[in-house]
């Protein structure tokens, strides 16, 4: 018998494992879709502007359909657990800032995490870390929205829709490069890396 995977299962499959980071992105994406009364983007109906490159962004891609490939996932490298979602259909945008209380601190976790990721943890330490991670995931997923994040409607200039550009062959390395990224060096079309050597 074939059963439909849950959204959570789809996120885990895409990311490769469950962790508090994807739980954060999952919660954020669900809040955004609910607040904007939107559904997963088939094309560029939704735009996600993310301010970090953490695990959370994988969950946002799966649930909202905002991806780099479609051009409706914008990365602003600010290192903040802040996400802005824009709905082209309604003209609305919401900014979601995850609160510090959504990520409970465990004083001994850093040392344990370092051992697990460093490959020096015992079986007992790996289990303790796994159990702690599962507790954090459940906490993040179950936290009421108003305790998890600050949500506010915002006015922003909508990003342009993604453009498709012609490709050119770099005269030095022979690799394809999209037109707006080509450089001219010595009268020849080259890619950025080759233009710098």
Provide the spatial order of strands within the biggest beta sheet.
Answer: 2-1-3-4-5
Low-confidence stretches: none
Q: Might you state the CATH topology name of the largest domain?
A: 60s Ribosomal Protein L30, Chain: A
Distance between the termini: 58 Å
| Helix-strand string | HHEHEEEHHHEEEEEH
Biggest pleated-sheet summary? 5 strands, mixed
**Helix count?**
7
CATH architecture of the largest domain: 2-Layer Sandwich
Please, how many domains?
Answer: 2
Give the % helix: 25-40%
Tally of extended strands?
9
- The level 1 CATH classification of the largest domain is Alpha Beta
Give the integer mean of the pLDDT values.
Answer: 92
Query: What is the rounded Rg?
Result: 21 Å
Tell me what portion of residues adopts beta-strand conformation: 15-25%
Task: Please identify the structural class as seen in this structure.
Answer: alpha+beta
Global morphology? globular
Organism: Pelotomaculum schinkii
Protein name: FmdE, Molybdenum formylmethanofuran dehydrogenase operon
GO molecular function: zinc ion binding
Pfam family, one: FmdE
Folded structure, characterized:
Keywords: Metal-binding, Zinc, Zinc-finger. InterPro entries: FmdE, FmdEsu_dom, tRNA_methyltr_O, Znf_DskA_TraR. Strands 2-1-3-4-5 form a five-stranded mixed β-sheet. A two-stranded antiparallel sheet has the order 6-7. The longest helix has 20 residues. Helices cover 37% and strands 19% of the residues. With 197 residues, the chain is of the alpha+beta class. It is globular and about 60 Å long. The protein folds into two domains: 115 residues, 60s Ribosomal Protein L30, Chain: A (2-Layer Sandwich); 33 residues, Wheat Germ Agglutinin (Isolectin 2), domain 1.
